[in-house]
């Protein structure tokens, strides 16, 4: 098998959280006095990485840990409104049946991730590395690979942001870009991901073809 371990991001990859994120980051903008962007600005910002976005809105970087914690806590309070993208449960089941190992690496909390997945799907996951800082995914990806008894060259990280592809490629790990997440798909394609998934069913089909 070319890939033995599939590592999934959560927000924007497994779970449809973008509208929730926009609503709540606007509340944080009012509270912490950084720019509250328009819908048109949001569309354009989806072509850029997180650092560019933070600079654009004047995000108070020293307060990032506080704001990130508040966002995760707010999601916990509203967790029943967060849903997986259609087709994700079926894909996770099919990948498991095909003997892939599956991990989840996310900056969201383990509690939130497991609640949305539900017990049945959680039982299909070999390892969770959650509560990651926005710029700390490399160490968590490394732990996911090692704890799954896998190798970097046999692993693929499936996610939706530019910082995700940068973290994977720094570790010489393959990256699978999804077209339905936080970052516009054309911006991800410019970073040369190893695989591009145009829809959820592509995940199984293309990984089976790769192997």
Could you give the distance between the termini? 5 Å
Main β sheet profile: 6 strands, parallel
What is the structural class?
A: alpha/beta
Q: Quickly count the helices.
A: 10
| Radius of gyration from CA coordinates | 17 Å
Number of strands: 6
Q: Which percent band covers the strand fraction? A: 5-15%
Notes on the protein architecture:
With 211 residues, the protein is an alpha/beta fold. The model has no long low-confidence stretch (mean pLDDT 94). It starts with a strand and ends with a helix. Helix 9 links the parallel strand 5 and strand 6. It is globular, with a radius of gyration of 17 Å. The longest helix is centred in the first third of the chain and has 15 residues. A six-stranded parallel β-sheet has the order 3-2-1-4-5-6, sandwiched between helices. Helix 1 packs across helix 4 and helix 5 runs parallel beside helix 10. Helix content is 49%, strand content 12%.
SSE blueprint:
Elements: E1 5-8, H1 18-32, H2 39-45, H3 50-57, H4 64-77, H5 88-97, E2 101-105, H6 110-122, E3 127-129, H7 137-147, E4 155-159, H8 162-170, E5 174-178, H9 185-189, E6 195-197, H10 200-210
Parallel strand pairs: 1-2, 1-4, 2-3, 4-5, 5-6
Helix pairs in contact: 1-4, 5-10
């Amino acid at each position: 098998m070319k890939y033995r371990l599939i590592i999934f991001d959560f927000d924007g990859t497994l779970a449809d959280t973008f509208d929730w994120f926009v609503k709540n980051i606007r509340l944080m903008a009012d509270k912490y006095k950084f720019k509250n962007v328009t819908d048109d600005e949001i569309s354009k910002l989806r072509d850029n990485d997180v650092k560019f976005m933070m600079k654009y809105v004047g995000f108070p970087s020293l307060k990032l840990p506080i704001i990130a914690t508040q966002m995760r806590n707010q999601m916990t309070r509203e967790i029943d409104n967060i849903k997986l993208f259609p087709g994700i449960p079926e894909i996770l089941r099919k990948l498991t049946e095909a003997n892939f190992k599956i991990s989840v690496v996310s900056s969201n909390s383990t509690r939130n991730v497991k609640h949305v997945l539900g017990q049945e799907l959680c039982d299909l996951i070999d390892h969770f590395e959650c509560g990651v800082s926005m710029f700390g995914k490399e160490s968590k990806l490394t732990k996911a690979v090692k704890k799954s008894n896998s190798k970097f060259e046999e692993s693929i990280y499936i996610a939706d942001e530019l910082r995700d592809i940068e973290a994977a490629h720094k570790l010489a790990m393959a990256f699978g870009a999804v077209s339905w997440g936080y970052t516009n798909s054309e911006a991800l394609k410019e970073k040369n991901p190893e695989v591009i998934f145009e829809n959820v069913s592509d995940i199984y089909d293309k990984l089976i073809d790769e192997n």
